[in-house]
């Protein structure tokens, strides 16, 4: 570990991990993180946040550039690495055109880096092929929010609004494990028996419903959409809807009413397994909590469990329609929101890393949007490439006849986190040039031709945008190791070597100012924000169009962000899982998270206390399945899908359904569960169907 030089006795910043972005104070020697009071975490941190400073001392921290030779990865100098990378990019472009090189970004990058990476791809590499790992976690919720509400901001209200609600419907979110300090905002609804958790597994969040605090609905995996259609059927059919609100603010109501007519609760029960009486009772509970019936408020929230399906966008559309039917979005005490997962999953999707978007949620195909951003960048709009392809399509095309021959990866460990991960690994290995920027030698970095060591959270300046659209300052507390560089410096050096037009600042504050100008007038408007303003202690929700604007904690209070100002209910039809169970693979596989780990585990698997808490994977299976397999403890089992298999110890529990197994996805090697998951995607958003596929489970022979 390098000798860390602190910038001062203490520094106020935020946690490096999830989108709750709990407030931290960094200080001491060795550096440690303590909680600070902030509305979302109220002085709390989870185990990951408390131990986050251990990341600075990771024993295998990357501290100098590496290049691949016949002897493997060996140290090199920055000049040699950057000169050779630029030369190889030029050669690939000369031989195969600008789309010969692609870019894969991450939802953990600061806003400044997310912005600069999109600009680097389009102006320096001149490729249209840029997308990021947020496509795996937020794409369907974003697409549904855009088509119904006109804009995608995960929570269009402060998280603290939940405190006073009578009811919260949580679909496919295990926030008690993923962001534990957020659970305190459910105290009010739980005290009034109004928490409703929809999850095929009895997760830590589902257990919050115990003792009269709420209701856990445990549907068959892949049937969330049917369940939502059933709730809509009851709300629209039993006089529970807010008809005044629907008349004044919503289009498409009659289309949706017709589309849910056939989903009466008894029919829904036959598909989902959720008792019809329970469904009716939840619909009435939500309606009674809604402002139009005199309740204190109701919220409908989705997480990845509901969103990561081939009908993910339609599932979220149904959730939004339910919220609209109850008169919630834009109401003083109610709303629909998606619980963003990655640390900067919100900002990461606003500033131009997405294949089809420019900064400020601008469209890369819209002439006015292209002209605005090109003017900020100081280039001719004709120079900007057109739309690229979503992440799964991008990864699938790598190394193919017509696909890219080179790839830059920033802030993502796709070999572990992508669906059908075995195929992704093979395709990365077949490339002519793979450049990975990372903090540690992740499984993806170990395949690279060049590994470039970059700064991590407590070593860099920038901003993050939390799950409630609030822009926060990330601050440097310690100097990075001597040969580690900020990505802004790397892109500036490569841009110069590639003769890219435009300016390439390495100062995060100046990059933010440029980002703010590029976003001005867009749907995610940061024009009134700056590092200087945020440093006064403000943490403001966008849109914030001018320096005197107080930010916008609550959206849609007067109008929706659609051209007409009215929300749109969208009729949808369930399609079911792409890879459904059959005789050879009779069980549903559901994947998810553990409290002690974050995403691919590249960071948290290097923190000793987190490994002590959860050192490895397991396969949760029901006692009845365990009995059929002859298991009575933690014997090794093999889980196999049409795409691959993995091995891990069994964990016998009644928390899963008899027809379902659950595996956490933070682990690699023989326990890589994404080797099994399905890369079929939602046609609207490009979201892959991580959350359900068909598997068989076998006991691994003792010998
Ligand atoms: Fe908070 Fe998330 Fe960090 Fe835990 S991981 S401390 S919930 S920001």
UniProtKB/TrEMBL annotation:
Record's Pfam families?
Molybdopterin, Molydop_binding
Q: Where is the 4Fe-4S Mo/W bis-MGD-type domain?
A: 8-58
Q: Which UniProt keywords apply?
A: 4Fe-4S, Iron, Iron-sulfur, Metal-binding
* InterPro entries documented for this protein: Asp_de-COase-like_dom_sf, MoPterin_dinucl-bd_dom, Mopterin_OxRdtase, Mopterin_OxRdtase_4Fe-4S_dom, Prok_molybdopt-oxidoreductase
**Any GO MF annotation of the entry:** metal ion binding
* Gene Ontology CC annotations of this record: membrane
Organism superkingdom: Bacteria
- For this entry, the protein name equals Nitrite reductase
Give GO BP annotations, semicolon-separated. respiratory electron transport chain
**Which residues constitute the signal peptide according to the record?**
none
């Amino acid at each position: 570990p390098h000798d860390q030089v602190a910038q001062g006795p203490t520094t106020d910043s935020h946690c490096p991990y999830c989108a709750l972005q709990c407030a931290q104070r960094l200080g001491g020697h060795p550096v440690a993180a303590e909680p600070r009071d902030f509305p979302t975490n109220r002085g709390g941190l989870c185990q990951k946040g408390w131990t986050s400073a251990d990341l600075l001392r990771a024993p295998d921290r990357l501290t100098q550039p590496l290049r691949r030779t016949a002897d493997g990865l060996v140290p090199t100098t920055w000049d040699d690495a950057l000169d050779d990378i630029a030369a190889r990019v030029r050669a690939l472009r000369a031989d195969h055109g600008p789309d010969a090189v692609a870019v894969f970004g991450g939802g953990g990058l600061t806003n400044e880096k997310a912005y600069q990476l999109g600009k680097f791809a389009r102006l320096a590499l001149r490729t249209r092929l840029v997308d990021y790992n947020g496509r795996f976690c937020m794409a369907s919720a974003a697409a549904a929010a855009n088509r119904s509400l006109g804009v995608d901001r995960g929570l269009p209200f402060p998280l603290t609004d939940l405190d006073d609600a009578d009811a919260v419907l949580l679909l496919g979110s295990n926030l008690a494990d993923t962001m534990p300090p957020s659970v305190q905002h459910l105290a009010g609804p739980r005290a009034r028996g109004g928490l409703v958790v929809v999850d095929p597994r009895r997760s830590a969040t589902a257990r919050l419903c115990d003792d009269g605090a709420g209701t856990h609905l445990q549907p068959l995996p892949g049937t969330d959409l049917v369940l939502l259609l059933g709730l809509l059927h009851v709300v629209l059919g039993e006089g529970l809807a807010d008809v005044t609100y629907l008349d004044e603010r919503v289009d498409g109501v009659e289309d949706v009413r017709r589309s849910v007519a056939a989903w009466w609760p008894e029919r829904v029960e036959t598909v989902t397994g959720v008792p019809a009486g329970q469904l009716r009772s939840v619909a009435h509970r939500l309606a009674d909590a809604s402002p139009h019936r005199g309740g204190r408020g109701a919220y409908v929230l989705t997480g990845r469990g509901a969103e990561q399906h081939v009908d993910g966008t339609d599932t979220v559309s149904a959730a939004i329609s339910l919220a609209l039917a109850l008169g919630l979005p834009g109401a003083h005490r109610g709303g629909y929101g998606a619980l963003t997962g990655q640390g900067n999953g919100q900002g990461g999707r606003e500033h131009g890393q997405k294949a089809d978007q420019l900064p400020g949620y601008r469209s890369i195909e819209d002439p006015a949007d292209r002209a605005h951003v090109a003017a900020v960048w100081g280039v001719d709009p004709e120079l900007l490439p057109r739309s690229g392809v979503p992440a799964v399509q991008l990864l699938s095309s790598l190394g193919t006849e017509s696909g890219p021959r080179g790839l830059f990866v920033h802030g993502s460990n796709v070999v572990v986190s992508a669906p059908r991960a075995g195929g992704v690994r093979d395709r990365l290995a077949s490339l002519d040039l793979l450049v990975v920027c990372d903090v540690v030698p992740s499984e993806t970095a170990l395949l690279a031709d060049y590994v470039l060591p970059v700064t991590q959270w407590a070593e860099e300046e920038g901003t993050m945008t939390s799950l409630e659209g609030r822009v926060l300052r990330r601050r440097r507390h310690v100097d990075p190791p001597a040969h580690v560089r900020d990505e802004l410096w790397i892109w500036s050096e490569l841009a110069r070597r590639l003769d890219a037009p435009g300016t390439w600042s390495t100062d995060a504050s100046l990059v933010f100012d440029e980002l703010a100008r590029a976003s001005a007038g867009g749907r995610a408007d940061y024009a009134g924000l700056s590092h200087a303003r945020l440093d006064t202690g403000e943490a403001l929700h966008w849109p914030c169009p001018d320096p005197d604007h107080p930010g916008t904690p609550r959206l849609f209070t007067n109008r929706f962000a659609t051209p007409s100002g009215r929300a749109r209910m969208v009729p949808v039809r369930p399609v079911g899982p792409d890879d459904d169970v059959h005789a050879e693979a009779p069980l549903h596989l559901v994947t998810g998270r553990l409290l002690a780990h974050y995403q691919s585990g590249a960071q948290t698997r290097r923190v000793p206390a987190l490994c002590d808490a959860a050192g490895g994977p397991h396969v949760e299976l029901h006692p009845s399945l365990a009995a059929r397999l002859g298991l009575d403890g933690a014997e090794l089992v093999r889980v196999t899908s049409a795409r691959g298999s993995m091995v891990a110890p069994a964990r016998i529990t009644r928390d899963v359904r008899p027809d379902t197994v659950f595996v956490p996805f933070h682990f690699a090697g023989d326990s890589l569960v994404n080797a099994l998951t399905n890369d079929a995607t939602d046609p609207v958003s490009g979201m892959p169907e991580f959350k359900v596929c068909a598997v068989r489970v076998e006991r691994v022979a003792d010998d």
